[in-house]
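Tutorial, part two.
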Amino acid sequence: MTRRTVFSRIISIAVFILAIGLVLSVTGQIIRAKFIGDSTTIVDGFYAEKRNDIDLVVIGSSNSFCTVDPIVLYEEYGIAAYDFGSSSQPMNISALYLREALKTQQPKVVALEINMMTSDSVSSRGEAGLRWGFTNIPLSVDKLRCIYQSLGEVNAEYFTYVFPVFRYHNRWKELSKTDYTYFYKDKTNYTKGYLETQAVSETAVNLTDYGFEGEAWIEEENVACLDEMVQLCRQKNVELLLFKSPKENWHRYETEAVRALAGERGLQFVDFNELYSDGKIELDMAADFRDSQHLNDSGAQKVTRYLGGYIRENYELPDRRDDAEPNAWDEACAYRHRKGWQEYMGAQTARECIELLQDDKDYVLVVTDAQNKGGVRQWVYQDCSVALDLIWQDDGIRHMKIGESELVLSKLGALHQILIDGVEQYQAGTRWSIIVYDKILGSVTANLTFQ
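Running the prediction step on this input gives:
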């Protein structure tokens, strides 16, 4: 066999392996589980951020992204923050997330929520936490090493984390349109990783056992992961702040154990269970938690305001509200303020509704007058002007783009339809129908009818 033949075979084998890897990767993108509100949208949103644009990265388990609200931090302190976490995140995956964050960002401060510091060792975590943590992180040497650290060996299970298609191959029968379209959609996360929720715990949360006596045990593996993060931050000239979100079954002796570790490493540590116990922060046990372990929006706002003040007092971060041009956090604030109830939703007449919206270029109105003398009349207001004015007499169909969505107007006999991205929106039975589409939110925000 000649040298040229051997070289050709090596090239052929390499191309074959790359092709298989590409097929597995693309297939995995489609078939893998989408953890919306958790690691999928959090991780993808983080990578969608402009490089070196984040000044505070918050890392940890669900206690991190249910506690720190970056929009509140920005509006009240001008801090550009992102919650880069995943549910039940063990300490070694927190270290992986830090490594990933430092590949694209140069934050001034990293805030680590330490709920998992006193939990089991990294090699005894359940599958759910590992799936949440690994699935959407890009493949790299760091990720491969972290998977091995979690499993302790390279086996069949190991490769299900490298190529998720091996784990989720049975999902074919439950795939939806989102599974096929998600990976090429805009991944911008307008909550900056925070999980919004107004849910309230069914029973009042009890933090009164904070002072109970006991002894904390922190696994050496978890301490080693903390030290890895300390070293990474020092190499990149980043301040590392430890904090503990308020929750049941956290005690002062655990606070003291973590504070000792922090002190030995020259780190600041803020514990909100301690602050609540000492009367330094007010929380409503019946209204500020979604369950015994996590805050809701009301509680997160209170804790975030305190944490923002603490960060402003102890670290040097720019006030990004002073930026000359609108930034990603300005956009996120606009996004949040457009959600929920708006003034136009209380309009008493179609005219009043239109007048409240007609000067906002980010709203699209699809207006129907079902009692027009010449036939049903429909208007589309887009960019503060009439983009379509149609009186239906014959059957037909019209397509047009509104924002990033597809609008379809149709008539078949006496039946009229208004579809936006394939979803029926028209409500018959009254004279006026006004469908309000928000281009910033990329969705219908109201479907109003008037006599």
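The first strand starts at residue 56 and ends at 60. In part three we will examine how such features are distributed along the chain.
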